[in-house]
């Protein structure tokens, strides 16, 4: 019986430490607890990764949304060496051939919340990007019409940011006896 602590000899193969999932088009990858593959491109990599995935059969961009992690102490699963930022852009792509789904999570800095638009790769993202801009204030460089889509044009602020002051405007609901 060989000694488990002995160093490998010429005829033995050293066991390699298990490595994480392979990067997808240069973007590091994690797998969430449910087995969902998540690629983590940088803002600069985003369009190239989405274009390459489209060419591999991920023909539909199902969703573009964002998360504001302000004051969120819960740990996030990020690739080693990737720093968490306040905002996270989440892109969901699907391929109908197998079917397959992949999530892209892009860390977006609070100081400069700008990412490139996916409009040239997936034209259907036009309204989704406008909604993210409207609600979170993340700007999409190269978007053909980056204007508000849900809030009035003169609205100040971005309502889904966690530091947005709530309760500033009284709302009268149907059936309420009187304004509050």
Automatic annotation (TrEMBL):
Q: Which domain of life is it from?
A: Bacteria
Sequence segments annotated as region (Disordered) = 1-33
Q: Name one GO molecular function term.
A: quinone binding
Its GO CC terms are: plasma membrane
Per the record, membrane topology reads: Peripheral membrane protein
Please provide the record's keywords in A-Z order.
Answer: Cell membrane, Membrane, NAD, Oxidoreductase, Quinone, Translocase, Transport
Subcellular location as annotated: Cell membrane
> Where is each NADH:ubiquinone oxidoreductase 30kDa subunit domain found?
42-166
The EC number of this protein is: 7.1.1.-
Q: For this protein, what reaction is catalysed?
A: a quinone + NADH + 5 H(+)(in) = a quinol + NAD(+) + 4 H(+)(out)
Under the heading Pfam families, the entry gives: Complex1_30kDa
What does the subunit comment say? NDH-1 is composed of 14 different subunits. Subunits NuoB, C, D, E, F, and G constitute the peripheral sector of the complex.
Q: Which HAMAP family match?
A: NDH1_NuoC (MF_01357)
Q: Which NCBIfam families match?
A: NuoC_fam
Question: Per its database record, what is this protein's job?
Answer: NDH-1 shuttles electrons from NADH, via FMN and iron-sulfur (Fe-S) centers, to quinones in the respiratory chain. The immediate electron acceptor for the enzyme in this species is believed to be a menaquinone. Couples the redox reaction to proton translocation (for every two electrons transferred, four hydrogen ions are translocated across the cytoplasmic membrane), and thus conserves the redox energy in a proton gradient.
Family, according to the entry, reads as follows:
Belongs to the complex I 30 kDa subunit family.
The protein's name in its UniProt record: NADH-quinone oxidoreductase subunit C
Organism, per UniProt?
Iamia majanohamensis
Task: Please name the taxonomic classification of the source.
Answer: Bacteria, Bacillati, Actinomycetota, Acidimicrobiia, Acidimicrobiales
Q: Which gene encodes it?
A: nuoC
């Amino acid at each position: 019986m060989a000694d488990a602590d002995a160093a490998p000899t010429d005829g033995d193969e050293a066991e390699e430490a298990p490595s994480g999932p392979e990067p997808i088009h240069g973007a590091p990858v994690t797998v969430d607890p449910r087995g969902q593959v998540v690629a983590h491109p940088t803002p600069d990599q985003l369009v190239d990764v989405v274009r390459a995935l489209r060419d591999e059969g991920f023909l539909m961009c199902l969703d573009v949304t964002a998360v504001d992690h302000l004051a969120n102490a819960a740990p996030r699963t990020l690739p080693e060496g990737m720093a968490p930022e306040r905002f996270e852009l989440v892109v969901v792509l699907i391929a109908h051939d197998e079917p397959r789904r992949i999530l892209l999570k892009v860390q977006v800095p609070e100081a400069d919340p700008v990412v490139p638009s996916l409009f040239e790769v997936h034209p259907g993202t036009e309204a989704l990007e406008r909604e993210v801009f409207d609600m979170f204030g993340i700007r999409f460089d190269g978007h053909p019409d980056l204007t508000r889509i849900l809030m009035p044009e003169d609205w100040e602020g971005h309502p889904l940011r966690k530091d947005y002051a709530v309760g500033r405007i009284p709302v009268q609901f149907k059936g309420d006896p009187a304004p509050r």
